[in-house]
Design brief:
This protein is mainly α. It has a single domain, classed as Up-down Bundle (Butyryl-CoA Dehydrogenase, subunit A, domain 3), CATH 1.20.140. 63% of the residues lie in helices and 4% in strands. It has 4 helices and 3 strands, in the order H-E-E-H-H-E-H. A 3-stranded antiparallel sheet has the order 2-1-3, with no helix packed on it. The longest helix is centred in the middle third of the chain and has 32 residues.
Length: 149
C-alpha cells in the first residue's frame, strides 16, 4: 500500500540521493594550491566531477522513486529497493576511491574539508535498508493472513 512506512523511507532515500547533486562531498579554500587539480577547479568535489558518481546518484534516486509506485507487487518492490541499495553501495565505493585519489594528488600545502554531502549516501543506504525491512514485513503479514483464510 502506498501509505505504508516503507513509502516514506523510499521517498526519503530518493531525496537523499538527489540532494547529493546539490551538496559537495569535499571542498578546498579559495587560496588553496589544490585548485590546480582538475577535481577541485570549482573548489569542491561533487557528483558532477565524476560521471560514475553522477550516474549512480541519479540511478539510486530514480529506482527508489520507482519502487514507491510498485506497491501492489511487493516482491518486485523489494527487488527494486535491493537494486537501489546495490547502486548506493557502488556509489559509496566509487566515492571512497574518488576521495582517496583527490587526497593523494593534493599538494603538501593543500588543505581540504569534508562537507555534509558525504553523509547522504550513507543516509540513503540506511533508509533503503529500512524500506526493505518494511516491505518484507508487509509480505510476511500478507502471507500470514492468507493462511488464515
Amino acid at each position: 500500500m502506498i501509505q505504508r512506512i516503507q513509502t516514506l523511507y523510499l521517498l526519503l532515500a530518493a531525496g537523499a540521493s538527489f540532494s547529493q547533486l546539490t551538496l559537495p562531498y569535499m571542498s578546498v579554500p579559495a587560496d588553496n594550491p589544490a585548485h590546480n587539480l582538475k577535481v577541485f577547479e570549482d573548489g569542491m568535489l561533487n557528483p558532477f566531477d565524476n560521471i560514475g558518481l553522477l550516474g549512480l546518484c541519479v540511478l539510486s534516486g530514480l529506482v527508489a522513486l520507482a519502487a514507491i509506485f510498485i506497491f501492489k507487487n511487493r516482491p518486485l518492490q523489494a527487488r527494486l529497493a535491493g537494486g537501489a541499495q546495490i547502486a548506493t553501495l557502488l556509489l559509496l565505493v566509487l566515492l571512497g576511491v574518488s576521495i582517496y585519489q583527490a587526497i593523494d594528488k593534493m599538494p603538501e600545502s593543500g588543505t581540504y574539508s569534508f562537507q555534509i554531502g558525504i553523509a547522504f549516501p550513507v543516509l540513503s543506504l540506511i533508509l533503503l535498508w529500512m524500506a526493505s525491512r518494511g516491505i518484507r514485513a508487509d509480505e510476511k503479514l500478507v502471507r500470514s493472513s492468507d493462511r488464515l483464510r
